[in-house]
Design brief:
Order of helices and strands: EEEHEHHEHEEHEH
Number of strands: 8
Subcellular location: Cytoplasm, Cytosol
CATH superfamily: Alpha/Beta hydrolase fold, catalytic domain
Number of domains: 1
Protein name: Carboxymethylenebutenolidase homolog
InterPro entries: AB_hydrolase_fold, CMBL, Dienelactn_hydro
GO molecular function, one term: hydrolase activity
Oligomer: single chain
Number of helices: 6
Strand content: 15-25%
Family: Belongs to the dienelactone hydrolase family.
Shape: globular
């Protein structure tokens, strides 16, 4: 029996009225929100295991768009079932085999092409949460078109040297009380990045925070966590603004 990686109840979420709209791009659907003025800067949002329809992730898309970026969350699961709050954690490993965060390259290329050709984007960054954080780590090693990345509590997967040779500036956000990611893993990540990474990077651990802390909507936050959630989001936006 695998420990439930989420310490909050993902079933209890307030509804969210989205500000953006859905589009079909080649073989994938995506949720897009644009700022009220023209910009040639864009951010891709990589969703967590609950997929592109989950209210939390749409809230984040709208939040980033509010900072002046064309923001898009593609369905990286390509129409297949996301993980559901009613699913059993014992089946999680099997589900992950069919939802590999290292196999997002094709979808990322489709979205990058759309942003450049249809939206006039010239500089593009990416942020990702949990499953999406792993996808971001992978893409920042593989895709030079992404000018900056923020990986939020993506588990640190395989330990190979090329895993630290990031192509562009990347910021890693973790929660101190995330029991899916050990402190040792974070320390190792730091050591290896120091050794192999040739671009700007940053690692920050937020006190008392569990896995998934940073994408909660305001009404779903606990008062004790609120300052850390808001700080993490500010830090995420600041990193994007620094490079995009």
């Amino acid at each position: 029996q695998m420990a439930d990686p989420f310490l909050y109840d993902t079933g209890e979420r307030s509804r969210y009225g989205c500000l953006g709209h859905e589009v079909q791009i080649e073989h994938i659907k995506a949720y897009v929100c644009r700022p009220s003025f023209f910009t040639d800067k864009a951010v891709i949002v990589a969703h967590d295991i609950f997929g592109w329809l989950f209210p939390d992730i749409r809230y984040i898309v709208d939040l980033i768009a509010g900072h002046g970026y064309i923001t898009i969350c593609p369905d990286f699961f390509k129409g297949t079932e996301p993980w559901k709050t009613t699913d059993h954690w014992a089946d999680f490993a099997d589900w992950m085999k069919n939802h590999d965060p290292m196999k997002v390259d094709k979808e990322a290329d489709v979205v990058l092409k759309y942003l450049k050709e249809q939206c006039g984007a010239k500089k593009i960054g990416i942020v990702g949460f949990s499953w999406g954080g792993m996808a971001v780590h992978h893409l920042m090693l593989k895709n030079p078109q992404l000018a900056a990345g923020v990986s939020l509590y993506g588990r640190i997967i395989r330990d190979t040297e090329e895993r630290y040779n990031l192509l562009n500036p990347t910021f890693f956000i973790f929660g101190e009380k995330d029991h899916t990611i050990s402190y040792d893993q974070i320390t190792l990540l730091e050591e290896k990045l120091k050794q192999y990474c040739k671009v700007a990077y940053k690692i920050k651990v937020y006190p008392g925070q569990v896995h998934g802390f940073a994408q909660l909507k305001p009404e779903d936050m606990k008062p004790d966590d609120k300052p850390y959630i808001e700080e993490a989001r500010r830090d995420m936006i600041d990193w994007i603004k620094m490079f995009i």
